[in-house]
Design a protein that fits this description.
InterPro entries: Glyco_trans_19. Its EC number is 2.4.1.182. With 400 residues, this protein is of the alpha/beta class. It has helices at 19-33, 47-51, 68-73, 75-92, 103-115, 135-142, 153-158, 181-187, 205-225, 238-249, 265-271, 281-288, 301-309, 320-327, 347-358, 361-379, 386-398; strands at 11-16, 40-45, 55-59, 96-100, 120-123, 145-148, 164-166, 196-200, 230-235, 259-262, 274-278, 293-297, 339-341. The protein is built from 17 helices and 13 strands. The strands form two sheets. A seven-stranded parallel sheet has the order 3-2-1-4-5-6-7, sandwiched between helices. Helix 9 links the parallel strand 8 and strand 9 (230-235). The chain is globular and about 65 Å long.
């Protein structure tokens, strides 16, 4: 790819709010460096972004919150951080500011910067197909362009006159279309002939505190019903590792106890026959690994009551594989993945749904076939990688 020329390398600001955003940011920096080898990257990011020469002004964990109640309790600190960040970016005057996901925080920052004359991009569209499509108008007030990971999103923005581009989903580049569990099991030192359950109860501390014990209880029930089952739990980060270790210490320690590992979530999914996990980006990863799954989630009671009171949910499905199945034309009532949310989020129901998948090979096969079709759709038949397309769209705005 030809490199852009200029008198001074640009400063590019990125604002990532959690582990998944850190990975997106790292891929984006790598792709942008092919255009601007000497560019300076600043803002908020994690370890992966910093490994690519990113200068992080704040700890990424400052933004790793979820749910109304959680955000409200930290609101004074978040507002102070946002004021400081906006002031610093206005003083820095980067060539462009890219907010990566974390819409509750980033869109407010982007709006102020856009009003001050800076170019702004939001990378990863908020779920406007599920939560209040009219939010698209406010997003348009905050950014010059939205970079979308899902193929159905740009047409929604087009109805509101907003520039949105489908760039493909970066995770679709990280998994082969047809997956093989043998190398993953060998890498994790798991037996090749035993049933394996991958358990991913969330990456945020608040999620693990709220749901971890229920997921652990469900896994113990599945293990009791399936002699020889191995359960592997990949911790998303060091704080999650410590929390999960403490939760496991409260349970029995024997040969059937779950195996806790530091990272390696993709390998754990690929090694598994079935995945039991919290709703979120991990469900998309399990889909791309072509692994049947059971999805559970529970937000704080206050967050749930607020969402119900204001009728904020516009979908009857929550797991990304179910949403994508319907978007890919598999039927408006398609429910590929069992979802156990809020009051249904109990250890008994999670264990029952998981055991049903283990005992129904025909159903697992049908799910895998559907996941392969959806994987192709997320690649978008675009040449190259998603990070390259996102970078090209950003470069276009910088050099306009």
């Amino acid at each position: 790819m030809a490199m852009s020329t200029g008198i001074k390398p640009p400063t590019i600001a990125l604002i990532a709010g959690e582990d998944s955003g850190d990975q997106l940011g790292a891929d984006l920096i790598a792709a942008l460096r092919r255009h601007y080898p000497q560019a300076r990257f600043v803002g908020i990011g994690g370890r992966r972004m910093q490994e690519h020469g990113f200068e992080s002004w704040y700890d990424i964990r400052e933004l790793s919150l979820f749910g109304f109640a959680e955000v409200i309790s930290h609101l004074p600190r978040l507002l102070k951080l946002r004021r400081e960040l906006v002031a610093r970016l206005l003083a820095e005057k980067p060539a462009i500011v890219v907010g990566i996901d974390a819409p509750d925080f980033n869109l407010g920052v982007e709006r102020r910067l856009k009003q001050a004359g800076l170019r702004t991009v939001h990378y990863v569209s908020p779920s406007i197909w599920a939560w209040r499509e009219k939010r698209a108008d406010k997003i348009g007030q905050s950014v010059h362009r939205v970079l979308c990971l899902f193929p159905m999103e740009p047409s929604i923005y087009a109805r509101h006159g907003i520039d949105a581009r489908f760039v493909g989903h970066p995770l679709a580049d990280r998994f082969p279309l047809v997956s093989d569990r043998v190398p993953a099991r060998r890498a994790l030192q798991l037996p090749l002939d035993a049933p394996v359950l991958a358990l991913l109860p969330g990456s945020r501390h608040s999620e693990l505190e709220r749901m971890g014990a229920t997921f652990m209880d469900a896994a113990r029930r599945v293990t009791a019903a399936m002699p020889g089952l191995r359960v592997v739990i990949p911790a998303a980060n060091s704080r999650a590792l410590a929390t999960l270790k403490a939760q496991l210490a409260r349970g029995p320690r024997d040969d059937s106890a779950p195996i806790l590992i530091d990272g390696h979530a993709h390998e754990a999914m690929l090694a598994a026959d079935v995945v039991l996990l919290a709703s979120g980006t991990a469900t998309l990863e399990a889909m791309l690994a072509k692994r049947p799954m059971v999805v559970g989630y529970r937000v704080s009671p206050l967050s749930y009551r607020i969402a119900r009171l204001f009728n904020m949910l516009k979908t009857d499905v929550y797991a990304l594989p179910n949403i994508l199945a319907r978007a890919c034309g598999m039927g408006k009532d398609t429910m590929l993945v069992p979802e156990l949310m809020q009051d249904d989020f109990t250890a008994d129901k999670l264990a029952h749904a998981t055991l049903q998948l283990f005992h129904d090979s025909e159903r697992r096969g049908a799910i895998v076939a559907a996941f392969e079709q959806m994987h192709e759709a997320l690649r978008g038949h675009l040449p190259g990688h998603a990070g390259d397309h996102a970078a090209a769209s950003i470069v276009e705005l910088i050099e306009r």
